[in-house]
Structure formats: structure tokens, C-alpha cells
From TrEMBL:
Keywords: Nucleus, Transcription
Spt4/RpoE2 zinc finger domain span: 52-128
Domain of life: Eukaryota
Pfam families: Spt4
Cell compartments where the protein resides: Nucleus
Key word Manganese present: no
Listed GO MF terms: RNA polymerase II complex binding; zinc ion binding
Source organism of the structure: Babesia gibsoni
UniProt name for this protein: Spt4 superfamily protein
GO term, biological process aspect, one: regulation of DNA-templated transcription
Main location (coarse class): nucleus
Keyword Nucleus listed: yes
GO cellular component: DSIF complex
Length: 141
């Protein structure tokens, strides 16, 4: 057996690689975008880093714009959608660790981190910060 033939069977077929890429890069698992493409006036496309923030209450990690557009999927009572001030009060950019949960009900990692009842997404392991007193009072009403 030639040296080249010895390793040919160990590699995936080109078709398998294409199917593998489609499954991973189809957008199904793009939960937390890292960059955003913006087109400048001169026609060039610029990649900008997004400002990721974690909800202080449930640890869901989203970009600041995602919190602004949709609020927190786990904490609608915090009323963050459309309110930049509330987003800054109820989220923190100071977080560590990241866990991605695709199927919260089935995931042992979600259960271990007490995320089993939360929405699909990426979560911070620890978040630095507390909800302001005014927000806690609003929740209590």
C-alpha cells in the first residue's frame, strides 16, 4: 500500500465535509454574534465588535442591540426592550465564562447551572453586579 493510499481512507469525503459545514454554519447555532458587518459610505464593509452584556438576573448573554430590540427572553419583567438606561442598569459587561444551551430541558449542563427553564442561548457562568434598588422595587410591585 502506497503512503498516500494509507491515509486516504482516514479523511472525510468532500461531500461529507460540505454537509458538516452546512449543519454547523447554517445559522442554527449562531446565538451570540461576535461581530457585525456594516457598509460604509465608500462601499467598504467594516467588521465591528459587538458590546456583549449579561443579564444580571438570569445571566443570558446578548449584544446591547439585541437587549434593546428584544429585551431579555427570560426576564420580561425587567422591561429592557427599547430602554437603553434600563439595559445598562439590568445587565453587566463584566462577566466570565460562557455556556451555550441549545436544548435547556435535556441538557445536564443547563440543569447543573440551574438554567433548565431558561430560553435557548449563551449564558455567563458568573456576572459581576447587582440590580439597582429602583429596579428591585419595580419588580416587587
Amino acid at each position: 500500500m502506497a503512503h498516500k493510499d494509507m491515509f486516504e481512507s482516514d479523511h472525510l469525503d468532500q461531500e461529507d465535509e460540505e454537509n458538516h459545514d452546512e449543519a454547523y454554519y447554517s445559522g442554527k447555532f449562531n446565538l451570540v454574534p461576535i461581530t457585525r458587518s456594516t457598509r460604509q459610505r465608500n462601499g467598504e464593509v467594516e467588521q465591528t465588535m459587538l458590546k456583549l452584556r449579561a443579564c444580571i438576573n438570569c445571566h443570558l448573554v446578548l449584544s446591547e442591540d439585541q437587549f434593546y430590540d428584544n429585551g431579555c427572553g427570560n426576564c420580561p419583567h425587567l422591561q429592557m426592550d427599547g430602554d437603553r438606561r434600563r439595559i445598562l442598569d439590568c445587565t453587566s459587561s463584566n462577566f466570565s465564562g460562557l455556556i451555550s444551551i441549545i436544548e435547556p430541558q435535556k441538557s445536564w449542563a443547563a440543569k447543573f447551572n440551574r438554567l433548565g427553564d431558561n430560553v435557548t442561548g449563551c449564558y455567563a457562568i458568573s456576572v459581576v453586579g447587582d440590580l439597582p434598588e429602583s429596579v428591585r422595587e419595580d419588580i416587587g410591585r
